[in-house]
Recover the amino acids of this structure.
């Protein structure tokens, strides 16, 4: 699997949140990432998920990625809107 980075859009592979889209806000050293969707999982309460349980299809939210990397303020509404308009292809990048 491709190494996940801040700003990537990932999909949950299984569980009650299967196929739900999330934005990676932080990559932890132990193989986990912190995910938000701006709706159920907001910035103040991100979901910790194992990278093996995430699927990356090539979508990156560049504007939000730049804001997060530069320490600028990001709002849940921005994340919700950006996740709604991203396009999905059917090719998983490994």
């Amino acid at each position: 699997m491709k190494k996940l980075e801040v700003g990537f859009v990932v999909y949950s592979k299984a569980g009650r949140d299967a196929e739900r889209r999330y934005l990676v806000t932080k990559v932890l050293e132990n193989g986990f990432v912190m995910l938000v969707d701006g709706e159920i999982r907001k910035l103040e309460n991100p979901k910790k998920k194992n990278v093996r349980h995430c699927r990356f299809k090539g979508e990156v939210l560049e504007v939000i990625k730049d804001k997060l990397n530069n320490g600028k303020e990001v709002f849940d509404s921005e994340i919700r809107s950006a996740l709604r308009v991203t396009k999905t292809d059917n090719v998983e990048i490994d």
